[in-house]
């Protein structure tokens, strides 16, 4: 189980430096790339003790903004000012960039200056002709090393890795010997190591299991320096963020509150703008009531008191409608299920000699919306492939009810699009029932999925990941199956599409089997949760996800399942 003790977290807590005050200031900043203006006249200030979420439509420039803050890009106009004494740490997206390094080296290199000093003094001590001059240099390096708390570096890195479930026996292994999931955790440890002044995290929850995400939420909720996050995980943003930076209309505006507060306040602003006949006094009252509801449900973070004070100061001018567009996602079933949904009996599967599933047995009932969760994505994906009939089990049986009409999205759907010269409209026409396959209907249908105008003539092989998922969801809606099978369907989607898909699945009258790392997605959809590991399963029906993970019996079984 993950280490969640105060001791484990305290090691990495902030030690305030004397002599300067941490801050990032952005003045009149603008950026153009290849003649396209991403944003203009941006003026922002980031201060310690706050966690800032950066949101915006795909392509708006969220990740680019982090590169500007880190100094990897230079603004076209204006200035991004970071004090030279402040150390910036960012999450590496290159999972294979450290293959020849040990796990311990990879983490400590996250504090590059510390690592360089450590290597330089070690090289001096290894010299056969160690001179007096070398001794003076080594003494200076030792002083600098001690000032950076270098003597505790390996112990701190080890504790951090163990908190992320990377055991000690892996710390001296090469990164090339780790699984993909383990590499993701090591790179997260690398970013967090050494108490950085400014922490930049681009999609930090990608590839993490839900328990590690919870650990990271707890870590960041009390982190008292500057944290700036790009994420599509709504629950994560809500649990960690004190402010949201919205990249919209070619601007970046900062709003007090978490993601839910930003979303609902922007909807309130749109409603107020449309209601032109309402008196200003009535609008102010509605705003005050809205703020009061959010203030009463502040997050668990110790930053909540400060956030509440900021929320109370919000005026009508501070809230603005968003330009975001949401796809229309609604699943309907052609016919209802009968009495049986699914029976899985003693299913086992090994891959390359490694046991992935072992004697798995469970029964799902009509109306179940079942979330399959695991600390190993390969386990859940293999199970989903077996349920979809794409992979055969080594042993056991999968029996679907006779009335089941299955519609699915696999995790890897590249074969649907690669080397495919069909236009979007013609690709979708293959799956449309008679009477729904004419151009007028398909164009209208695709328009609601945000493929407007000439977009429908794009070839499917050149689509982005998010566009391909929206195509797959369009296919599913036309198929009108009574049972939906979705393996990590929010992958590649922006926040708006995730929200629409979430609402569409909540409203679906049939049965759903799905995997996800998105806490809110699981919590709002599932009424049946099954934890799957290579050592067995934990099966709990008629439960929400929060009830599942917080149940004492489940926690004990989880410890037995993974220890």
Question: What is shown here, in short?
Answer:
With 563 residues, this protein is α/β, with parallel strands linked by helices.
List keywords for this structure.
disordered N terminus, six-stranded mixed β-sheet, 563 residues, 20 helices, Rossmann fold, 21% strand, alpha/beta
Structural notes for this entry:
Helix 4 packs antiparallel against helix 5 and helix 10 (259-274) packs antiparallel against helix 11 (280-295). This protein has 563 residues and is an alpha/beta fold. Strand 10 and strand 11 form a beta hairpin. Among the domains are: 257-318, no CATH class; 342-417 and 464-562, P-loop containing nucleotide triphosphate hydrolases (Rossmann fold). The protein contains 20 helices and 18 strands. It has a 6-stranded mixed beta sheet with strand order 5-6-7-3-8-9, sandwiched between helices. Strands 14-15-16-12-17-18 form a 6-stranded mixed beta sheet, with helices on both faces.
* C-alpha geometry: globular
CATH first level of the domain at 342-417 and 464-562:
Alpha Beta
CATH architecture of the domain at 342-417 and 464-562: 3-Layer(aba) Sandwich
Low-confidence stretches: 1-19
Largest β-sheet summary: 6 strands, mixed
Strand portion: 15-25%
CATH fold name of the domain at 342-417 and 464-562, please? Rossmann fold
Q: Provide the spatial order of strands within the biggest beta sheet.
A: 5-6-7-3-8-9
Number of helices: 20
CATH homology superfamily of the domain at 342-417 and 464-562: P-loop containing nucleotide triphosphate hydrolases
Number of strands: 18
* Separation of the first and last Cα atoms: 7 Å
Helical residues, percent:
25-40%
Mean of residue pLDDT values: 89
Integer-rounded radius of gyration: 26 Å
Judged by helices, strands and strand pairing, the structural class is alpha/beta
């Amino acid at each position: 189980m993950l280490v969640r003790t105060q001791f484990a977290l305290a090691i990495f807590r902030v030690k305030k430096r004397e002599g300067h005050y941490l801050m990032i200031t952005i003045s009149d900043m603008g950026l153009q790339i290849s003649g396209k203006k991403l944003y203009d006249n941006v003026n922002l200030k980031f201060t310690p003790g706050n966690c800032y979420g950066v949101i915006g439509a795909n392509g708006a420039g969220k990740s680019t903004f982090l590169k500007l803050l880190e100094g990897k890009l230079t603004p076209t106009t204006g200035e991004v000012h970071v004090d030279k004494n402040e150390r910036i740490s960012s999450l590496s997206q290159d999972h294979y960039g450290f293959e020849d390094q040990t796990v311990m080296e990879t983490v400590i290199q996250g504090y590059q200056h510390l690592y360089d000093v450590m290597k330089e003094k070690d090289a001096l001590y290894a010299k056969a002709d160690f001179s007096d001059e070398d001794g003076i240099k080594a003494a200076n390096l030792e002083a600098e090393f001690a000032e950076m708390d270098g003597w505790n570096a390996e112990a701190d890195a080890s504790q951090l890795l163990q908190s992320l479930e990377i055991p000690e026996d892996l710390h001296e292994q090469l990164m090339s010997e780790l699984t993909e999931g383990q590499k993701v955790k090591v790179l997260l440890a690398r970013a967090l190591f050494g108490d950085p002044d400014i922490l930049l995290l681009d999609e930090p929850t990608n590839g993490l299991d839900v328990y590690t995400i919870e650990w990271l939420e707890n870590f960041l909720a009390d982190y008292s320096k500057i944290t700036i996050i790009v994420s599509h995980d709504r629950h994560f943003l809500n649990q960690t963020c004190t402010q949201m930076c919205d990249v919209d209309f070619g601007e970046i505006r900062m709003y007090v509150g978490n993601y839910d507060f930003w979303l609902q306040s922007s909807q309130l602003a749109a409603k107020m703008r449309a209601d032109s006949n309402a008196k200003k006094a009535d609008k102010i009252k509605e705003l005050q009531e809205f703020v009061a509801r959010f203030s009463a449900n502040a997050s668990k973070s110790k930053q909540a008191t400060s956030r509440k004070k900021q929320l109370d100061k919000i005026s009508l001018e501070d809230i603005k409608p968003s330009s975001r567009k949401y796809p229309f996602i609604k699943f309907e079933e052609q016919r209802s299920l009968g009495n049986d949904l699914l029976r899985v009996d003693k299913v086992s599967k090994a891959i390359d000699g490694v046991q992935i599933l072992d004697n798995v047995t469970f029964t799902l009932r009509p109306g179940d919306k079942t979330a399959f969760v695991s600390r190993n994505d390969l386990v859940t994906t293999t199970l989903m492939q077996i349920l979809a009939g794409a992979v055969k089990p080594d042993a056991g049986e999968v029996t679907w009810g006779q009335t089941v009409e299955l519609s699915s999205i696999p995790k890897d759907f590249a074969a649907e699009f690669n080397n495919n010269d069909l236009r979007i409209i013609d690709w979708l026409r293959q799956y449309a029932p008679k009477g729904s396959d004419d151009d007028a209907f398909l164009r209208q249908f695709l328009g609601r999925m945000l493929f407007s105008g000439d977009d429908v003539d794009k070839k499917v092989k050149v689509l982005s990941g998010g566009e391909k998922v929206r195509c797959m969801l369009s296919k599913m809606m036309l198929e009108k199956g009574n049972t939906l099978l979705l393996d990590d369907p929010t992958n590649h989607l922006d926040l708006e599409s995730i929200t629409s898909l979430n609402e569409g699945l909540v409203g679906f009258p049939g049965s759903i089997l799905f995997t996800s790392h998105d806490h809110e997605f699981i919590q709002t959809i599932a009424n049946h949760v099954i934890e799957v590991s290579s050592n067995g399963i934990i099966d709990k029906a008629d439960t929400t996800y929060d009830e599942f993970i917080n149940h004492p019996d489940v926690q004990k079984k989880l410890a037995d399942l993974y220890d």
